[in-house]
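A further point concerns the way the authors explain their paired sequence and structure data. For illustration, here is how one protein appears when written out as sequence plus structure tokens:
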Amino acid sequence: MIKDNLAKKLTFGLKRSDLSKKSGVSEELLYRILTGKTENPGVYTVSKIADALSVSVDELIGRKEFFDQYIATHQDDLEVQQKLFLEVCAFIKEHIQNNNIKTLKIQEIIYVLRGMCDYSIKHNGCKLSKDFASWLCKNNIT
């Protein structure tokens, strides 16, 4: 998925060498991603590429499309989605309070919020998976 999405971005006039300079990712690694020789680049690499392209990591790896498609086909579940959203927000708030976190970036919260909602919708029937939520918070909100 990243290979195809990255290729789409590069067809709009951005050269691989320019992306390499802007992202700090070597041209060789970009080539390997584009040709499929590297199918699963690391999170740090994907993040650097996404930042350089001014897109989210979710958009670059194709997760945004799934989420948007789900929302479009499940408008009737709005009440369930709202309940999930509030439960996820409460979980994140509790994590922040319990761990006495004083400073954090809004991007961290949004990433975790989106990740919990996506996972819960896709894998857990629109119910919060507390194990996954705990893991995501511990690894992204510190």
User: Anything to note?
Assistant: The chain has nine helices and no strands. Residues 78-98 form the longest helix (21 residues). The CA atoms of residues 72 and 114 lie 16 Å apart.
